[in-house]
Specification:
The chain is of the alpha+beta class. It is about 40% helix and about 35% strand. About 30% of the residues are buried.
Length: about 100
């Protein structure tokens, strides 16, 4: 199961952390892992290249992706971070046994 944590600074979404594997299918065929991972990487790349934010933390390892935006970029990053959150919620709606969402 992929565990998704969202981080907030007051009412602004500050970032997210993904840990684990969906275990929907074997490695290389797991469409849930693929969807979650591609959304996460796309948002991180867009925050970096399009919005030009600075990060407190960016981690990309096997079974662990994390992205936390520095406070001074929170306003500029909300559209992309909220888009990511909506995308993950939609994937969870379709595959509830493979994703768990936590809010911190």
């Amino acid at each position: 199961m992929i565990k998704v944590k969202y981080y907030y600074e007051e009412f602004s979404l500050k970032g997210f952390c993904l840990k684990g594997h969906a275990d929907f299918a074997e490695i290389g065929y797991d469409i849930v892992c693929s969807a979650v991972t591609s959304n996460a990487i796309a948002v991180i790349n867009s925050l970096d290249k399009l919005v030009k934010v600075e990060f407190e933390s960016v981690i990309g390892q096997e079974g662990h992706i994390e992205c936390i935006v520095k406070d001074k970029y929170l306003k500029d990053s909300q559209l992309l971070l909220n888009h990511f959150q909506l995308s993950i919620e939609e994937i969870k709606r379709e595959y509830p046994k493979n994703i768990k969402i936590l809010k911190k």
